[in-house]
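[SOLVED] Need 3D model of a two-part complex

Original post:
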Amino acid sequence: MSQTPKQFAERSVPTSADVARLAGVSRATVSYVLNNTASVRISEPTRRRVREAAEELGYVPHAAARSLRAGHTRMVLLPATSVPHGPQFHRFFHELQWALRRLDYTVVQYGSVGLDGDDAARAWAELRPVAVVSLGEVGLTPHGVDILKRSGAKAVISLAPRRVEGAHCLVMDQREVGGCAVTHLVQRGRRAIGVVMPREPGLEHFAQPRYEGAVRAAADTGARVEPLPLAYDEESAAALAARWHGLGLDAVYAFNDDYAMLLMRALQDERIDIPGQTAVIGADDLLLGRLLRPRLSTVHIDMVTGRLLAELVDQAVRTPDDRPRDHELMGARAVHREST
Amino acid sequence: MSQTPKQFAERSVPTSADVARLAGVSRATVSYVLNNTASVRISEPTRRRVREAAEELGYVPHAAARSLRAGHTRMVLLPATSVPHGPQFHRFFHELQWALRRLDYTVVQYGSVGLDGDDAARAWAELRPVAVVSLGEVGLTPHGVDILKRSGAKAVISLAPRRVEGAHCLVMDQREVGGCAVTHLVQRGRRAIGVVMPREPGLEHFAQPRYEGAVRAAADTGARVEPLPLAYDEESAAALAARWHGLGLDAVYAFNDDYAMLLMRALQDERIDIPGQTAVIGADDLLLGRLLRPRLSTVHIDMVTGRLLAELVDQAVRTPDDRPRDHELMGARAVHREST
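Solution:
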């Protein structure tokens, strides 16, 4: 590995023709072997010769060339999220990648930071994915779905709070989360309920529908619901806790377990008894909620499994002419512990 | 949007030739306009006509075709990590994407779940990225770097605990983190120090060098260091806490703040006084550490900023013949709070 920069600059990128020459076979044979084409019978010694020649020359197939020949790729594109996600999402995503790879797809996450709506769809379409799984942040529109399908995508799947025309929609109705939390608090006798609205960008796509669900659940119960903007830092939590008595609240749904931990600490520092004076409930059912004292009540969210989603992607790709269907795949239930 | 499946199946993917025909220009002009080629002067009305025709037909350029013409892409490939990462990493990653996009690169994260070492490098090379930024998990080897460079990558950058021949290395020496933690504990008079080793897969790439750093820092101080395997669940923490007295430890470096929170709770449930009987220090300087009582001491880690890394990628791409350089970019320092 002691080559000089000059030597490196002079080396050129090896091609499949170089491999064919070295192995003494045709370029087509090289392509069949290295792309694992199952439909063509090639002897094991020939396969070995091709692989060894490729290895010696440092040749790897060009995915772009292959996709141009095939007219599409086996690429499933997942727009990378800009929202920080917890361990639950990470597990889901890992499982999804794993399951798609087993089905012979390549999973690519595309950073769409700074792109919105149809611009994002256009950027995704340039990569000619066979399927796009949108995690619902970038505002996929029916027009965006159309751009993707016209560029050759066989399936567009949206995991989002709302339906998008033309896409298979896994509707994750975030309103259910807020609804569950408030119903739990009302059942435990609370009547003046604050709902934490995180100030962090990106989270409004979750916070707004959760708040709507909270309002809907409180309707006709005699309970009132009040939005409480909160940044994820100690100062913001301390400021909110300092004016807590003036708010006249007896409960708070704190968006998720992280915000609940932050607010609970600030309330306890103000000597507000939990749950005596104020009940606190989070969401996500994280381990940390069980480590708090009092133990944190939470909303447990059942997400679609990565494996199930992978099967749905594959099904949608293999039957692109089927009318897109909606799937209700999120369940939510309150988990009662000590803080409510 | 009420087309029948049949109608959809009959539509074909529009090409740049279709756009050229509709706009009354050459295919080359379509390519210049839609790929924003700055070196060719085209009038604004013509540009508008091309864009409108593309919009009407639903045409977007094909990144693969463009990259075949150019011989390489503007794609910077980041292998997607299989390790759950916290908010600090997420911020870094977001910033990196943003900065690279401003420099006109496209950032693609590639899921290399289930691939290892040179197999991963080969899979990355198929996408013909202009640069690869490896986050050090998949065991990039000098041979892997060679595969990537021979396939046309102009720069391979590795953020990893150890150097890789042929790559620009941003050495994040994890040993420093463990070293900082143990030096802090020794300075505070502790002599029998446990080091948490997470059982979760993927974390061993961090845990092992951190442990080595801990051992090195304890050498010649009279302190002993003992590895403590721990899974991230309450049962594992309770089992460790139950046999705590038998271990004869007066301090623990708990890998990071999450594991520290888990273990601290279990120790407190066993009525072990912190820091009186056992000092606890984490790492990562998360907000949650400040919310615990006692407040958690931690190791603050200075990571390279996304912006700085983006500039380094761009520099490396523009001067591919320069000899790869190493950059020491991680700093670590202990933050003393109440738990030590």
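Edit: The CA atoms of residues 89 and 303 of chain B lie 9 Å apart.
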